[in-house]
Amino acid sequence: MAKWTAKHEAPEPLEGPVVATVTGGTILWFAMFLVQLPFYGWFADRDLLWWVWCCAAGGFLGLIGIWYVRGRDAALKRHAAERDAAAAGPAPHTG
């Protein structure tokens, strides 16, 4: 079997308000969990409890995602500041 090779370049990754997007998604998962809690018995009677716990898991994984993307965002900003400082050259000496 031959090795697969790409026929075109991969697109650039999309950048945007990543932290806000992940935070919003996490809030939605927790909201769906809370909305389903009053109907816990209904879900249990129909063997659909995984719906409730899927939303809870999505919320908790979202918390990990928020931590991750905040760190990534900080690292990108730090790298951009270092790159800009290096491009500006050394500071002039006054003395």
End-to-end separation in angstroms reads 69 Å
Strand content range: under 5%
Order of helices and strands: HHH
Number of strands: 0
Q: Which parts are unreliable, with pLDDT below 50 for 5 consecutive residues or more? A: none
Instruction: Please count the helical segments.
Output: 3
Q: Cα-atom Rg, whole angstroms?
A: 23 Å
User: Averaging pLDDT over every residue, what do you get?
Assistant: 91
Which of globular, elongated, flat, extended, rod-shaped describes the shape? Answer: elongated
What structural class is derived from the secondary structure elements?
Answer: mainly alpha
**Main sheet, how many strands, which sense, barrel?**
none
Helix-residue proportion: 55-70%
Please provide a brief summary of the model:
The chain has helices at 18-36, 40-45, 49-88. By secondary structure, it is an all-alpha fold.
